[in-house]
Amino acid sequence: MTIDLTIAICTYNGANRLPQVLERLRSQIGTDAFTWEVLVVDNNSTDGTAALVRRYSANFLLRYCFEPRQGIAFARRCAMAQARGEIVGFLDDDNLPTATWVAAACRFGHLHPQAGAYGSQIHGKYEIEPPDRFERICCFLPVTERGPDPLLYGANKGLLPAGAGIVIRKHAWQESVPAHPVLRGVSATSLDSKGEDIESLTYIRKAGWEIWYNPEMEIEHDIPRSRFERAYLLRFFRGVGLSRYPTRMARFELWQRPLLLLLYMGNDLRKFMIYWCRFQQRRATDVVVACELQLLWYSAISPLYHWQKSLSRRLEQGRKPMGTLSSLFVKPALTD
Protein backbone atom coordinates (compact mmCIF):
# COMPACT_ATOMS: atom_id res chain seq x y z
CA MET A 1 0.00 0.00 0.00
CA THR A 2 1.26 3.46 -0.93
CA ILE A 3 1.20 5.89 1.97
CA ASP A 4 1.06 9.61 1.16
CA LEU A 5 1.45 10.97 4.69
CA THR A 6 2.73 9.66 8.02
CA ILE A 7 1.71 11.33 11.27
CA ALA A 8 4.40 10.58 13.87
CA ILE A 9 3.74 11.03 17.58
CA CYS A 10 6.90 10.93 19.70
CA THR A 11 6.07 10.20 23.31
CA TYR A 12 7.63 9.42 26.67
CA ASN A 13 5.28 7.94 29.29
CA GLY A 14 2.34 9.36 27.36
CA ALA A 15 -0.29 6.72 28.11
CA ASN A 16 -2.47 9.31 29.85
CA ARG A 17 -2.00 11.99 27.17
CA LEU A 18 -2.05 9.93 23.97
CA PRO A 19 -5.78 9.03 23.92
CA GLN A 20 -6.93 12.61 23.30
CA VAL A 21 -4.41 12.99 20.44
CA LEU A 22 -5.39 9.66 18.88
CA GLU A 23 -9.09 10.49 19.18
CA ARG A 24 -8.48 13.77 17.35
CA LEU A 25 -6.64 11.91 14.59
CA ARG A 26 -9.32 9.27 14.34
CA SER A 27 -11.88 12.07 13.78
CA GLN A 28 -10.07 13.79 10.90
CA ILE A 29 -12.13 14.91 7.91
CA GLY A 30 -11.30 15.56 4.24
CA THR A 31 -8.77 12.71 4.00
CA ASP A 32 -10.55 10.45 1.49
CA ALA A 33 -8.33 11.54 -1.43
CA PHE A 34 -5.09 10.23 0.06
CA THR A 35 -3.75 7.46 2.28
CA TRP A 36 -2.18 8.18 5.63
CA GLU A 37 -0.97 6.39 8.71
CA VAL A 38 -0.18 7.16 12.35
CA LEU A 39 3.13 6.08 13.86
CA VAL A 40 3.69 6.24 17.62
CA VAL A 41 7.37 6.38 18.59
CA ASP A 42 7.78 5.23 22.19
CA ASN A 43 10.88 7.01 23.51
CA ASN A 44 11.80 4.49 26.21
CA SER A 45 8.56 4.75 28.18
CA THR A 46 7.99 2.80 31.37
CA ASP A 47 4.18 3.12 31.50
CA GLY A 48 1.43 1.50 29.46
CA THR A 49 2.12 3.31 26.18
CA ALA A 50 2.70 0.12 24.16
CA ALA A 51 -0.51 -1.53 25.40
CA LEU A 52 -2.50 1.63 24.68
CA VAL A 53 -1.29 1.75 21.08
CA ARG A 54 -2.18 -1.91 20.57
CA ARG A 55 -5.75 -1.20 21.67
CA TYR A 56 -6.11 1.74 19.28
CA SER A 57 -4.46 -0.02 16.33
CA ALA A 58 -7.57 -2.12 15.83
CA ASN A 59 -9.53 0.96 14.82
CA PHE A 60 -7.34 2.76 12.26
CA LEU A 61 -3.98 2.57 10.51
CA LEU A 62 -1.69 2.87 13.51
CA ARG A 63 1.79 1.45 14.05
CA TYR A 64 4.15 1.37 17.03
CA CYS A 65 7.93 1.49 17.27
CA PHE A 66 10.32 1.74 20.22
CA GLU A 67 13.33 4.06 20.49
CA PRO A 68 15.50 3.27 23.55
CA ARG A 69 17.80 6.30 23.24
CA GLN A 70 16.36 9.06 25.38
CA GLY A 71 15.70 12.39 23.68
CA ILE A 72 13.21 13.74 21.14
CA ALA A 73 15.94 14.03 18.48
CA PHE A 74 16.45 10.26 18.53
CA ALA A 75 12.69 9.66 18.50
CA ARG A 76 12.30 11.84 15.41
CA ARG A 77 15.12 10.03 13.63
CA CYS A 78 13.42 6.75 14.43
CA ALA A 79 10.16 8.12 13.05
CA MET A 80 11.83 9.18 9.81
CA ALA A 81 13.38 5.74 9.40
CA GLN A 82 10.07 3.96 10.04
CA ALA A 83 7.67 6.31 8.22
CA ARG A 84 6.19 4.99 5.00
CA GLY A 85 4.89 8.35 3.82
CA GLU A 86 6.95 10.81 1.76
CA ILE A 87 5.61 13.59 3.98
CA VAL A 88 5.92 13.17 7.74
CA GLY A 89 3.95 15.31 10.20
CA PHE A 90 5.06 15.43 13.84
CA LEU A 91 2.76 15.83 16.80
CA ASP A 92 3.78 15.74 20.45
CA ASP A 93 1.55 13.87 22.86
CA ASP A 94 0.20 17.18 24.16
CA ASN A 95 -0.67 18.55 20.69
CA LEU A 96 -4.37 18.43 19.76
CA PRO A 97 -4.92 18.89 15.99
CA THR A 98 -8.10 20.38 14.58
CA ALA A 99 -10.31 18.13 12.45
CA THR A 100 -8.72 19.36 9.18
CA TRP A 101 -5.05 19.29 10.28
CA VAL A 102 -4.12 16.13 8.39
CA ALA A 103 -5.84 17.24 5.17
CA ALA A 104 -4.22 20.68 5.38
CA ALA A 105 -0.79 19.11 5.95
CA CYS A 106 -1.09 16.87 2.88
CA ARG A 107 -2.53 19.61 0.66
CA PHE A 108 0.19 22.14 1.49
CA GLY A 109 2.93 19.62 0.74
CA HIS A 110 1.50 18.93 -2.70
CA LEU A 111 1.03 22.63 -3.48
CA HIS A 112 4.58 23.53 -2.39
CA PRO A 113 6.96 20.86 -3.71
CA GLN A 114 10.01 22.98 -2.73
CA ALA A 115 8.90 23.08 0.88
CA GLY A 116 11.25 20.90 2.89
CA ALA A 117 9.28 21.63 6.05
CA TYR A 118 6.33 23.71 7.20
CA GLY A 119 4.99 24.49 10.64
CA SER A 120 1.56 24.77 12.19
CA GLN A 121 -0.36 27.56 13.80
CA ILE A 122 -0.19 26.65 17.50
CA HIS A 123 -2.71 27.92 20.02
CA GLY A 124 -2.08 27.67 23.74
CA LYS A 125 -4.56 25.65 25.80
CA TYR A 126 -3.69 26.74 29.33
CA GLU A 127 -4.63 25.02 32.56
CA ILE A 128 -4.04 28.30 34.38
CA GLU A 129 -3.74 31.91 33.26
CA PRO A 130 -0.24 32.65 31.87
CA PRO A 131 1.88 35.28 33.63
CA ASP A 132 1.78 38.93 32.61
CA ARG A 133 3.60 39.69 29.34
CA PHE A 134 3.71 35.99 28.51
CA GLU A 135 3.47 36.92 24.81
CA ARG A 136 7.16 37.93 24.98
CA ILE A 137 8.24 34.32 25.55
CA CYS A 138 5.27 32.23 24.35
CA CYS A 139 6.96 31.22 21.07
CA PHE A 140 9.44 29.11 23.04
CA LEU A 141 6.73 27.01 24.78
CA PRO A 142 5.68 26.89 21.86
CA VAL A 143 2.69 29.04 20.94
CA THR A 144 2.93 30.21 17.32
CA GLU A 145 0.32 32.57 15.88
CA ARG A 146 1.82 34.45 12.92
CA GLY A 147 -1.31 35.55 11.12
CA PRO A 148 -3.84 34.04 8.69
CA ASP A 149 -1.58 33.87 5.62
CA PRO A 150 1.19 31.39 4.72
CA LEU A 151 4.65 32.73 5.50
CA LEU A 152 7.97 31.80 3.92
CA TYR A 153 10.76 31.96 6.51
CA GLY A 154 13.59 33.98 4.98
CA ALA A 155 16.90 32.18 4.58
CA ASN A 156 18.82 35.18 5.95
CA LYS A 157 16.96 35.14 9.27
CA GLY A 158 17.24 32.81 12.24
CA LEU A 159 13.47 32.48 12.66
CA LEU A 160 12.10 28.96 12.17
CA PRO A 161 8.90 27.10 13.12
CA ALA A 162 8.58 25.00 16.26
CA GLY A 163 8.99 21.23 16.22
CA ALA A 164 5.46 20.73 17.55
CA GLY A 165 3.16 20.38 14.53
CA ILE A 166 6.02 20.47 12.03
CA VAL A 167 5.66 18.61 8.72
CA ILE A 168 8.85 17.50 6.98
CA ARG A 169 9.41 16.10 3.51
CA LYS A 170 11.24 12.81 3.96
CA HIS A 171 13.56 13.37 0.99
CA ALA A 172 14.62 16.76 2.37
CA TRP A 173 15.41 15.17 5.73
CA GLN A 174 17.36 12.26 4.25
CA GLU A 175 19.60 14.46 2.14
CA SER A 176 20.16 17.20 4.74
CA VAL A 177 19.96 16.08 8.37
CA PRO A 178 22.93 14.21 9.94
CA ALA A 179 22.29 10.78 11.41
CA HIS A 180 23.78 11.86 14.74
CA PRO A 181 22.29 14.97 16.35
CA VAL A 182 24.31 17.55 18.21
CA LEU A 183 21.30 18.31 20.40
CA ARG A 184 19.32 15.39 21.75
CA GLY A 185 16.31 17.45 22.73
CA VAL A 186 14.18 17.30 25.84
CA SER A 187 14.38 13.98 27.67
CA ALA A 188 13.07 12.55 30.92
CA THR A 189 16.13 13.78 32.79
CA SER A 190 17.25 17.00 31.09
CA LEU A 191 16.14 20.25 29.48
CA ASP A 192 19.73 21.25 28.66
CA SER A 193 19.79 19.90 25.10
CA LYS A 194 16.80 21.69 23.62
CA GLY A 195 16.80 23.10 20.09
CA GLU A 196 16.95 19.80 18.21
CA ASP A 197 14.08 20.96 15.97
CA ILE A 198 15.92 24.18 15.05
CA GLU A 199 19.08 22.17 14.38
CA SER A 200 17.32 19.84 11.93
CA LEU A 201 15.40 22.62 10.18
CA THR A 202 18.59 24.66 9.82
CA TYR A 203 20.24 21.81 7.93
CA ILE A 204 17.19 21.45 5.68
CA ARG A 205 17.09 25.16 4.85
CA LYS A 206 20.85 25.27 4.33
CA ALA A 207 20.44 22.55 1.68
CA GLY A 208 18.17 24.87 -0.32
CA TRP A 209 14.72 23.75 0.78
CA GLU A 210 12.01 26.24 1.67
CA ILE A 211 10.61 26.44 5.20
CA TRP A 212 7.03 27.68 5.61
CA TYR A 213 4.38 28.57 8.17
CA ASN A 214 0.98 27.13 7.21
CA PRO A 215 -1.84 28.67 9.28
CA GLU A 216 -4.40 26.18 7.93
CA MET A 217 -2.71 23.51 10.04
CA GLU A 218 -3.98 24.41 13.51
CA ILE A 219 -3.24 22.63 16.75
CA GLU A 220 -3.86 23.30 20.42
CA HIS A 221 -0.87 22.90 22.71
CA ASP A 222 -2.03 21.58 26.07
CA ILE A 223 0.11 23.48 28.61
CA PRO A 224 -0.37 22.32 32.23
CA ARG A 225 0.06 24.34 35.41
CA SER A 226 3.54 22.84 36.01
CA ARG A 227 4.94 24.52 32.88
CA PHE A 228 4.38 27.93 34.47
CA GLU A 229 6.25 27.16 37.67
CA ARG A 230 9.22 29.47 38.04
CA ALA A 231 11.75 26.67 38.60
CA TYR A 232 10.62 24.83 35.46
CA LEU A 233 10.68 27.96 33.29
CA LEU A 234 14.19 28.92 34.42
CA ARG A 235 15.46 25.42 33.65
CA PHE A 236 13.66 25.53 30.31
CA PHE A 237 15.20 28.85 29.23
CA ARG A 238 18.61 27.72 30.44
CA GLY A 239 18.29 24.83 27.97
CA VAL A 240 17.16 27.13 25.17
CA GLY A 241 20.11 29.44 25.76
CA LEU A 242 22.65 26.63 25.90
CA SER A 243 21.41 25.32 22.55
CA ARG A 244 22.14 28.61 20.78
CA TYR A 245 25.76 27.89 19.82
CA PRO A 246 25.19 24.69 17.76
CA THR A 247 21.94 25.92 16.18
CA ARG A 248 23.57 29.19 15.14
CA MET A 249 26.78 27.68 13.83
CA ALA A 250 24.90 25.07 11.78
CA ARG A 251 23.90 27.92 9.43
CA PHE A 252 27.48 28.77 8.47
CA GLU A 253 30.54 27.25 6.85
CA LEU A 254 33.55 26.39 9.00
CA TRP A 255 35.61 29.34 7.77
CA GLN A 256 32.84 31.77 8.79
CA ARG A 257 32.45 30.53 12.36
CA PRO A 258 35.41 32.16 14.22
CA LEU A 259 34.30 35.72 13.52
CA LEU A 260 30.61 34.96 13.90
CA LEU A 261 31.24 33.22 17.21
CA LEU A 262 32.87 36.35 18.61
CA LEU A 263 30.13 38.58 17.22
CA TYR A 264 27.36 36.46 18.71
CA MET A 265 29.04 36.22 22.12
CA GLY A 266 29.72 39.94 22.22
CA ASN A 267 26.19 40.82 21.19
CA ASP A 268 24.65 38.42 23.70
CA LEU A 269 26.75 39.83 26.52
CA ARG A 270 25.89 43.39 25.48
CA LYS A 271 22.17 42.64 25.47
CA PHE A 272 22.42 40.80 28.78
CA MET A 273 24.16 43.72 30.49
CA ILE A 274 21.69 46.27 29.11
CA TYR A 275 18.73 44.15 30.15
CA TRP A 276 20.26 43.46 33.57
CA CYS A 277 20.78 47.15 34.25
CA ARG A 278 17.22 47.98 33.27
CA PHE A 279 15.28 45.11 34.85
CA GLN A 280 17.44 43.26 37.39
CA GLN A 281 15.36 44.59 40.30
CA ARG A 282 12.28 42.90 38.81
CA ARG A 283 13.77 39.49 38.19
CA ALA A 284 12.67 38.11 41.58
CA THR A 285 9.01 39.03 41.05
CA ASP A 286 8.59 39.03 37.25
CA VAL A 287 9.06 35.53 35.85
CA VAL A 288 9.14 36.76 32.23
CA VAL A 289 12.06 39.10 33.03
CA ALA A 290 13.82 36.24 34.82
CA CYS A 291 13.35 33.98 31.78
CA GLU A 292 14.66 36.60 29.37
CA LEU A 293 17.75 37.19 31.53
CA GLN A 294 18.27 33.44 31.73
CA LEU A 295 18.04 33.14 27.95
CA LEU A 296 20.49 35.98 27.29
CA TRP A 297 23.10 34.79 29.80
CA TYR A 298 23.12 31.14 28.73
CA SER A 299 23.11 32.13 25.06
CA ALA A 300 26.31 34.09 25.72
CA ILE A 301 28.07 31.19 27.45
CA SER A 302 26.67 28.49 25.14
CA PRO A 303 29.98 28.14 23.18
CA LEU A 304 31.93 27.63 26.41
CA TYR A 305 29.40 25.07 27.61
CA HIS A 306 29.70 23.02 24.43
CA TRP A 307 33.47 23.30 24.40
CA GLN A 308 33.58 21.98 27.99
CA LYS A 309 31.28 19.07 27.05
CA SER A 310 33.46 18.27 24.06
CA LEU A 311 36.62 18.40 26.16
CA SER A 312 35.13 16.16 28.88
CA ARG A 313 33.99 13.62 26.32
CA ARG A 314 37.38 13.45 24.65
CA LEU A 315 39.08 12.95 28.01
CA GLU A 316 36.64 10.17 28.91
CA GLN A 317 37.39 8.46 25.60
CA GLY A 318 41.14 8.78 26.15
CA ARG A 319 41.66 11.09 23.18
CA LYS A 320 43.90 14.14 23.06
CA PRO A 321 41.93 17.30 23.95
CA MET A 322 41.54 19.87 21.20
CA GLY A 323 42.56 23.47 21.82
CA THR A 324 39.98 25.77 23.30
CA LEU A 325 39.39 27.88 20.20
CA SER A 326 39.90 25.22 17.54
CA SER A 327 37.29 22.94 19.10
CA LEU A 328 34.69 25.70 18.84
CA PHE A 329 35.12 26.08 15.09
CA VAL A 330 34.56 22.45 14.10
CA LYS A 331 31.24 20.63 14.23
CA PRO A 332 30.23 20.49 17.92
CA ALA A 333 30.47 17.12 19.60
CA LEU A 334 27.37 15.22 20.70
CA THR A 335 26.20 16.60 24.03
CA ASP A 336 24.20 15.11 26.84
Structural summary, described in words:
With 336 residues, the chain is α/β, with parallel strands linked by helices. It folds into 2 domains: 3-228, Spore Coat Polysaccharide Biosynthesis Protein SpsA, Chain A (Alpha-Beta Complex); 232-312. The chain is built from 12 helices and 9 strands. It has helices spanning 18-26, 49-56, 72-82, 101-111, 170-176, 196-206, 230-242, 244-249, 257-279, 287-300, 302-316, 324-329, and strands spanning 3-11, 36-42, 62-66, 85-92, 95-97, 115-126, 151-152, 167-169, 210-223. Strands 1, 2, 3, 4, 5, 6, 7, 8 and 9 form a 9-stranded mixed β-sheet that branches. α2 links the parallel β2 and β3 (62-66). The relative contact order is 0.13. Residues 324-336 have low confidence and may be disordered.
Which secondary structure elements does this structure contain, and how are they paired or packed?
Layout: E1 3-11, H1 18-26, E2 36-42, H2 49-56, E3 62-66, H3 72-82, E4 85-92, E5 95-97, H4 101-111, E6 115-126, E7 151-152, E8 167-169, H5 170-176, H6 196-206, E9 210-223, H7 230-242, H8 244-249, H9 257-279, H10 287-300, H11 302-316, H12 324-329
Parallel strand pairs: 1-2, 1-4, 2-3, 6-9
Antiparallel strand pairs: 4-8, 5-9, 6-8, 7-9
Helix pairs in contact: 5-6, 7-10, 9-10
